[in-house]
């Protein structure tokens, strides 16, 4: 008996199921980033390393889904969605997982000390960035409904409202990042210059979680607008 292929099974139900499964796994990576920074703020380096391994495991799982999806995605789909559009959304989704892995890797490679006055704004920003990833995941979950309605009608309007909310969340993260950087630069005189540089990069990387989540939403907005 031939072995079963889970991705082929997903395609048997809908060509969009693997896209949704990939985004769910990507979102799990993002959720782990919140736990990562909570462990960092608690100065629990062992937990940081354990979470980094979990993120790597999830990122590898997302890569497997992505690669099999690319291999099984038909050259042409008899639906109002171009293959290239789906692959572009897939790549944007995947970048979220890659960014989560990069953040985790940096926190394992270099022990980062969180100044007391940066802890709460840091955690707030990380959580808000993950809110953006979660909203992007919810939008991708509506792909089936969008296709069934031909990207028109109440379903498309509901998705556009979700994209607007995602854009607002991303704007929140931009403002929170600026506040956090101001607090960081207030420590320039009492912090190792290399640490300042690493923190600046880390804040940017966290912000990229929301940036790429917003791009996923905006790509779906373009599909609805066609």
Describe the model.
The chain is mainly α and 226 residues long. It has one domain (6-225): Up-down Bundle (Methane Monooxygenase Hydroxylase, Chain G, domain 1). The protein has eight helices and no strands. Helix 5 runs parallel beside helix 8.
As for the number of domains, it is 1
> Based on helices, strands and strand pairing, what is the structural class?
mainly alpha
CATH superfamily: Phosphate transport system protein phou homolog 2, domain 2
Mean pLDDT: 90
CATH class identity: Mainly Alpha
Shape: globular
Q: Would you kindly provide a brief summary of this structure?
A:
The protein has 226 residues and is mostly helical. Helix content is 82%, strand content 0%. It has a single domain, classed as Phosphate transport system protein phou homolog 2, domain 2 (Methane Monooxygenase Hydroxylase, Chain G, domain 1), CATH 1.20.58.
